[in-house]
Each structure stands twice: as C-alpha cells, then as structure tokens.
Amino acid sequence: MAPAAPGADALGACPRCGRSLPRGTHLISYRNGDWPTMFATCTACDEVVRPE
C-alpha cells in the first residue's frame, strides 16, 4: 500500500514512513533565524518527526 500524499489540511509527510500528517498532530513550531521549524507526532511510527 502506497503512503497517502499530504492533503490541503496536512502539515506534510512523515520523513520515516511517508504518511500524511494531519494538523492535529502538530506539537510545536518555532523560527531558527529566518527558517521555520515544525515538529509533529506520526501516529503510524509513534515518533516525533519533522514534516517534509
């Protein structure tokens, strides 16, 4: 089964398994200089990841 592509309501895809990360999995966002950084929980991997 192929991973689902991120939809309009998604933060992005999990870098480990490729599954779409819905907005409800968002943990924290911050800026490091000019670059935004975001972390979310992948329910499939049960890991904190940085959406791609």
Helix content: under 10%
How would you spell out the order of helices and strands? EEEEE
Could you list the spans in which at least 5 consecutive residues all have pLDDT below 50? none
Calculate the mean pLDDT score and round it: 87
* Number of E-state strands: 5
Measured by DSSP, the beta-strand proportion falls in: over 45%
How many distinct helices?
A: 0
Shape: globular
Describe the main β-sheet briefly: 3 strands, antiparallel
N→C terminal distance: 20 Å
**SS-based structural class?**
mainly beta
How is the largest sheet built, in terms of strand order?
A: 3-4-5
* Global Rg: 11 Å
Question: Which key features would you list for this structure?
Answer:
52 residues; two-stranded antiparallel sheet; 3-stranded antiparallel β-sheet; mainly beta; globular; single chain
List the helices and strands and how they pair.
Blueprint (H helix, E strand, L loop, with lengths): L9 E4 L6 E3 L3 E7 L2 E8 L4 E3 L3
Antiparallel strand pairs: 1-2, 3-4, 4-5
